[in-house]
## 1
Amino acid sequence: MEQVRARLRGGPEDGREVSVPADPTGHPVPRITVPVRPPRERRATPPPLLVYERSGSHSTGTWDFEYVGAESQT
């Protein structure tokens, strides 16, 4: 599957750029989850996943994904 560049907007990962899968038309998937960077100490439960949704594209070919919240890993 093809990959496209995405810029994360808002939330703890604001400004970070990642590669996300694209559909056959070249558009990125509509929603991604990003694991929280693990803290140095061990936790009893896994850290949450940050949820970002596609919100638009730039002429540079990088797509914006807006932070919409977090969900627990199960």
Note: The mean pLDDT is 88.
## 2
Amino acid sequence: MHIHPPATPLAASARASIPLYPLSVHINGVQQHLYVEAWVSLLDLLRDRLMLTGTKKGCDHGQCGACTVLVDGKRINACLTLALMQEGRSINTVEGLADSAVLHPLQRAFIAHDAFQCGYCTPGQLCSGVGMIAEGQAHTRAQVRELMSGNLCRCGAYRQIVAALAEVMQLPPDNEDGSVQAPAGKVSA
């Protein structure tokens, strides 16, 4: 058990002098009106203040993707942005992907392809995948691998993650050399 020293008048006055700034955002479809310090990251706001702990703190330097969330539909690393920079925006975390008790199609595909392994990177992988699909830039599995390369998986479930995304995106399988297979019944030139 950790015992905190009694609060002193000096400590209380120091806390009182820290300015708080208003922040109004939609998080997972719910309007939030908050007051936060200027230095609070979006990740810390989500995890520590709003108890949305699905978003993970991995490296805290924007290198692993565990903290990926969607801001106005675009994927970002929540550890690299200040909460106050999101004023008026719509933020979706992994908790907001499902529609009530109905999982998002990508969540179902992750389960079907065993793409979640230990689960630590899964929230960031899912949010990044949803954002990548919305971007519309991936048309092959090779492009999926490239566009998802900012999200690391320590378990090495990359094949399963790509398979889950490819299923949802209805991508054709790749050949051994990475080229796309022609649909059945068609001859490629």
Note: The CA atoms of residues 99 and 162 lie 23 Å apart.
## 3
Amino acid sequence: MNSELIDQVSAQLGANGLPYSIPIHPNLVHLTLGLFIIGITFDVLGKVFPLQKWIFSSLAIPVQPANFFDVGWYNMIGSTIFTIFTVAAGFYEMLLATPSADLKSAWGMPAMETMLWHGIGGVFLLGLIFGMTIWRGWQRFIWSQNRDEQVQWSYLAAGITVMFIMYIHGTLGAQMAAEFGVHNTADSLLRLGEDLNTMLK
């Protein structure tokens, strides 16, 4: 690519290395995680509802298993939609990243390797979340037509496994920001020798 074009783009980037002040990807990540975890959690609550039914009745809270399953279903749909934008924003921001090449993460990986694994993992998780949502829809509209329960134990076990993968994947993302300073405004300003008290007012 033409070096003059690169210089033009670089001149428009802020202290965090992005053309906007707050990174989009980390904020969308928390929506993806929150919606998925809430979806699986409420499906677990709906599945074990008979065990805690007395808790809700003693508190005079009118709850049915279907209420929990509705929350689980709509949160899975929301998670899938937000994950598409999360991955897209992540790849865009990854293209603008300029991490230090001489550092290694707590897991012993250099910045580029960490970024690649995080990017590949994001696409993999998008596929898993999309697959889980399709599976959840099949259970809701086909499998559970003559049942009170809307989810299978295997689905819940798969969801908990996906949460564990999210934890590992999220740790890679946290290492990129905390250890390599990728799109971290304070880190970038410190490297430039700027006074944070003055710059971040």
Note: The two ends are 36 Å apart (CA to CA).
## 4
Amino acid sequence: MSEHRTASGGGADAVWRLRSRGCWQEAAELLRPSAASDPEAALSRAELLIEQCLFTARHWDQAEDALRLAEAVVVTTGQRAAASCARGFLAYLASVLGRRDRLDEAQAALGRTSALLPPKAAGRPLLDFRRGLVAENLLHDPQAATMAYRRAHQGATEHGDALLSSYTWRHLATLALAAGDQEQAREGFAASLRLREELGFTVGVAPALAALAEVSEPAEAARLRAEAARLVQALGGVPVWLAAGPVGVPAPGTPPDGRRWQDVSGTIG
């Protein structure tokens, strides 16, 4: 979720530009030469390919291979924590997307991450967010999810991680909407959209538009969904949970980053 821009100089910018447009394969290829010996590059490459699974529900083997490489080359405690956090997220995604139940693996990996990270470590907000996803969607414990998301949101704000903040805003808004708080939900969805547009995280803008449409007046909701549909089409059908809808962009209760994914295994080739 975070901005893993660990390459130096123009390389980092090139990876970000590709990633933000949903070109994960190309971005990962830029990191391939250094990933075999540079733990940070290996971790960044693994996270890119795991994010590709999130948005496409495909390419699982590539993500697993990249993560195994990262796990093999990490050296420091912080790097081992980052690899374990990525392992937990990949296991979570595989469970949510219906490939197989890997809840135990996700919990164990995130637990290892917590044991490795000091309380104020930069990796804590991402860990808290991913623990929130597990609590909400695999353990079905919205109270625990809310607490984890709030910790993640505070940490992301303190560390200046705008992309992670865009996720925490949206997930807190989703829980607020489920609890009937339309005003808080609207604030969160709008903040998430604003951050993604400011960052240029194009592949994440359509879900943010569709989410905001859920708490907008009918005319505005129709405009937001139409804009989201155009983005999905321009990006070649990603995110898949939006492309799978009857009119291109369904009501956003389904993405596999934690918002009540409905089984779409029969529609993903």
Note: The radius of gyration is 17 Å.
